[in-house]
Amino acid sequence: xxxxxxxxxxxxxxxxxxxxxxxxxxxxxxxxxxxxxxxxxxxxxxxxxxxxxxxxxxxxxxxxxxxxxxxxxxxxxxxxxxxxxxxxxxxxxxxxxxxxxx
Length: 102
Hints:
The chain is an alpha+beta fold and about 100 residues long. It has helices at about 1-10, 15, 35-40, 40-60, 90-100; strands at about 25-30, 65-70, 75-80. A hairpin with a 2-residue loop joins β2 and β3 (about 75-80).
């Protein structure tokens, strides 16, 4: 909390604490997953989630993204900070999204 207060009082200090980077962020989740999980046996839900998250991970990693986290059925992926060779981060994220839809 003290660091945040100091950054608010002295915005120039933020440059000392980090660097500005271009990043694309992709969020994805399953429509009506809560209903699906309530209406099916837990073993089936877990098995399908394992398969689903494996496919989503591939869809992120193959074009050059990094999975930041899974939040239940949601996937958060980052494009850019770990792959400076990527030139069009947004297009790369869209490639992942299209692969996820397939």
